[in-house]
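Private note to self, pasted from the team thread so I don't lose it. Backbone tokens:
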């Protein structure tokens, strides 16, 4: 029975690596996955899912206007699709999350979404908010803070490495702009303690 999965974490937990491994597992068995990624994330090139360890795959892109149900339905009519893998799912809209529930419920195709739970301000991304509410399975992928604790927050830093508390929710970047930290060090970096 198909289900909607949300694999979430802070940055550098291996979300894209896990997605690419899942795609490989399906392909190795002669099955056809659909890989989607956010158009806004062009760090490896538009329409590419790439991991820090060098794995990469082509992907269909989505932006805020893409009807992901229609895309997957069309692809499935051309050739049977066995799963949908969504990278950078935090950038999905509420409507797109609901469309993915329709992919599961109406088309019977499992959907595995991978993304950040919260932004650098400690607030949920829209896609993550609705995946937390609507996913059948929630799976936390873990990474570690510099202190060894589980990192569950992301700090955005400026060119001097100082934490930033304000700004646009979305600013594409990697290790040069973001650091995954535990709650204690997140609060300390932003002077949020007592």
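Design output:
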């Amino acid at each position: 029975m198909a289900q909607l999965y949300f694999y979430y974490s802070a940055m550098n937990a291996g979300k894209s690596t896990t997605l690419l491994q899942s795609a490989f597992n399906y392909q190795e068995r002669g099955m056809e996955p659909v890989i989607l990624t956010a158009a806004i994330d062009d760090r490896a090139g538009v329409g590419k899912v790439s991991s820090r360890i060098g794995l990469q795959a082509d992907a269909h892109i989505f932006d805020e206007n893409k009807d992901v149900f229609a895309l997957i339905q069309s692809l499935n009519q051309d050739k049977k699709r066995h799963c949908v893998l969504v990278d950078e799912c935090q950038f999905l809209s509420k409507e797109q999350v609901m469309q993915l529930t329709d992919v599961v419920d109406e088309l019977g195709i499992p959907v595995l979404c991978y993304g950040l739970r919260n932004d650098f301000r400690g607030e949920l991304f829209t896609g993550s908010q609705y995946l937390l509410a609507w996913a059948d399975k929630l799976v936390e992928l873990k990474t570690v803070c510099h202190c060894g604790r589980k990192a569950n927050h992301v700090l955005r830093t400026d060119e001097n490495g100082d934490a930033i508390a304000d700004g646009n929710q979305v600013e594409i970047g990697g290790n040069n702009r973001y650091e995954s930290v535990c709650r204690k060090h997140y609060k300390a970096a932003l002077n949020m303690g007592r």
